Amino acid sequence: MAQNRRVNPKTFFGELKRRNVYKVAIAYGVVAWLLIQIASQVFPFFEIPNWAVRFVVLAIIIGFPIALILAWAFEVTPEGVKRTEAADAAHERSRGVVWIYIIAVGAALSVSLFILGRYTAQREASSEVGARERMAGNQAIQQSIREKSLAVLPFANLSGNPENAYFAAGIQDEIITRLAKIGQLKVVSCLTTQRFKSSPDDLPAIAKQLGVANVLQESVQRSADEVRVNVQLVKAETDTHLWADTFDRKLTDVFQIESDIAKTIAEKLEAKLTGSEEHAISAKPTADLEAHQLYLKGRYLWNRRTGNNLKKALGHFQQAAEKDPNYALAYTGIADSCALIPVYGAGTPQDYYPRAKAAAQKALELDDTLGEAHTSLANVFFVTWSWPSRPRNLNEASSSTRTTRRLISGTAG
Q1: What is the pTM of this model?
Q2: Which own/partner pairs from 96-103 qualify as long-range (CB within 8 Å, at least 24 positions apart)?
Q3: Domain 285-413 in CATH: superfamily?
Q4: Does 148-284 carry CATH code 3.40.50.10070?
Q5: Residues 377-406: pLDDT tens digits?
Q6: H-helix or E-strand containing 317?
């Protein structure tokens, strides 16, 4: 019997098969692969360090020869685990179907985890690619917005008459208003830029402070019924000119000058105009030159807010409305002045707030597409805390023009 239990070298591979060493090796490999898949897929989910995965792989490698030695020395029988010699003596053998089940189940689980891991990895990779693309897209949009940002510095008054300062400031304000109606442009308000000189020493530093990429510098010279406007559009970072021109026109053509400047700036900054935007920046608010001059004087004083200046501004706006009863902007000036006079202690709310509301409503009757009129009425609601049930004017003001915040925060764009 001892002779029969002795391993015959000539039949070594047959003995490996008889002792199920092959089956154990295959089952071990399948289960090992399953464990590696579990470790690589599950451990990161629980934030288990990577060294733990490496430890599992190392333990599996070390365990492989140990499993083969145990398979050679022991036999799994219906009576339990026995040494192979004892199992041979009792004619007890393991059921081969058990090993098949182990291999099949382990292989199925391993393949499932492998496919799941590949699918998850692909989705994560796709998500990362999508996130990078979205980030790149957002950065491109932000860069595009920044490249189309603009500050219009105060216009230099070259007329030689300080009394014409209102005219230079008015032209600046109206050009900013027209530019602010172009959706693809970001325009800084005149209230923000008025503290700077028309020709600053360090243009890149000022542009950085204002958060814009481009700066428009201009000078205005008025003589009787003639006007000359010099413009320079400068890329602040490199201090290079994108465009420069001189407009010599009749004073009656001032609106056309403003429109031409706004359209050219949009073209140079590659901002596309919609049909409504092109119509808005080409609008001629009044045909009465004297009414327009009165409006500019009123807005000049309104921007330098004191109780006395606001009352003087109100007088100019009222005269402009008398000169041209269809001049909607004149009524917005009346509304804006009456809304702020009580705030600056120059009058009572009972006297001025009803007049402010009536003037804003009159401006809307004349032109319900005028963003400034919606802004004026919204500002009346703000100072009186009498919000309508449907805040249409705030929405209209915001969508019609980005000068909505002019009254409150002093920004445009």
Answers
A1: 0.62
A2: 96/20, 96/23, 99/20, 99/23, 99/24, 99/26, 99/27, 102/27, 102/30, 102/31, 103/23, 103/26, 103/27, 103/30
A3: Tetratricopeptide repeat domain (1.25.40.10)
A4: yes
A5: 999 998 888 766 555 545 554 444 444 434
A6: helix 307-323
